[in-house]
Amino acid sequence: MQSFQDLMLKADISFSYPDGTRIFDHLSFTADEGEHLLILSEPGSGKSTLSRLLAGALPGYTGGNLDGYAEFDGKDILSLPPYERMEIIGRVSQNTDEMLLFSSVEEEISFPLMNLGLETAEKDRRIADCLELFGLEKYRKVSTAELSGGEKRRLMLSILFAVDPCVYILDEAFDELSPYWRKKLREILSGLDRTVIVLGSHMLSEYDGVFSRMLSIENGKAVQYVPVKDSYTPLEMKTGNSVLKAENIEIERIHRSSGSSFGLSVPSFEMGEGECITLLGDNGSGKSSFSRVLSGLLKEKSGRVLINGKELSQKERRHSVAYLMQNPYEELFLPTVLDELNSTGADSSRIDYVLSLFSLERDAYVQELSYGKAKMLQAAVFFLLGRRFAIFDEMDSALSSVDFHRVLSCYLDNGTAVLVITHDMSVASMLPGRKLMIEGGVLDEH
């Protein structure tokens, strides 16, 4: 029989990237068998790096200097190849797209179970159970590319629960989930007898009662988390003259992989320059599809989009409405932060101002940025482009409350109208302006 001590996760890790950037300096922590541990830290503090190191995604693929140990069941898991860690440690990545490899939901869940050598009956049982657990039964044959951000998050959770490792690591896994699924995940984790480590950038009400301990990462070390009450300057809207309208919009998207379809009706939508509007709705309800129509990235089935009474083509919308996508890496293409900012055509003094405003390092490599820092860069690029209308598609996920408030303040202070899509009701409650909701395939005033 294994001892309680053997099943404790005990780590002391030091890690530097190939360029010499020191991330951890003897980051030391323990997690008892069955303990639920919450690690809350600022974007860029190393939370995702820690999850990748423990799961084996680092340093093998990017290089770097790793010292120390992470012991579990009498083994140093840092010395094991990733495929030998599967039953010990599993993770849900903050960036779901980086871990999706196959053409359908079923294949994504099936692949790691095949690697475990499970018999077909057991594999099929686990797939069916986890699809049901996270409400994905109807998406079994659907391509992962056709899922919404929240649906991809639930798929990654399904994979983790199907594999059922000894230690679950959830990197910002509550983000992009609707309030219903946040509550559901909270209930599932509360009843889970596995060791659970959740990594987050800000406190959520859904965390209450789930975790026995809370830590933070500061200066490369793990320390006791100390709650800090953030104070904010009230957000103000500076109204202007321009008005963005959508009239009688009908959107239809067909899942080509399964033949199923999705529809959204927007009888009327109006947003004035400088206004802040919050858009709410369940995962897959059509929030991102509507955003893509407004910004010219998706063609509506019928209806029209206008600014100041002039109907806009798709190309004209792309130059009028900024769409900050859920995944910032879908809009970042160049090697360094400075390269991305220079691509906007802004002069050097303006770029220096924005680097300071959004707390960015000019020579940092984009692909080495944390997910939160990538969102800050995404916001900085569109801020320099100066669109009068902007859509924040879950910009609050992976950012600290302070950083999100700062980004939104910058846009509103500049007179930009912002449509904020969020699943965090505490965020929605602090925002000025109107609240809209998508329910039953229709967008309407909430």
Automatic annotation (TrEMBL):
* Source organism superkingdom: Bacteria
GO molecular function list: ATP binding; ATP hydrolysis activity; ATPase-coupled transmembrane transporter activity
Localisation: Cell membrane
The cellular component terms of Gene Ontology attached to this UniProt record, alphabetical and capped at eight, are: ATP-binding cassette (ABC) transporter complex
The answer, when asked if Electron transport is one of the entry's keywords, is no
PANTHER family in the record: ENERGY-COUPLING FACTOR TRANSPORTER ATP-BINDING PROTEIN ECFA2, HEAVY METAL TRANSPORTER
**Protein name per the record:** ATP-binding cassette domain-containing protein
**Source organism:** Candidatus Ornithospirochaeta stercoravium
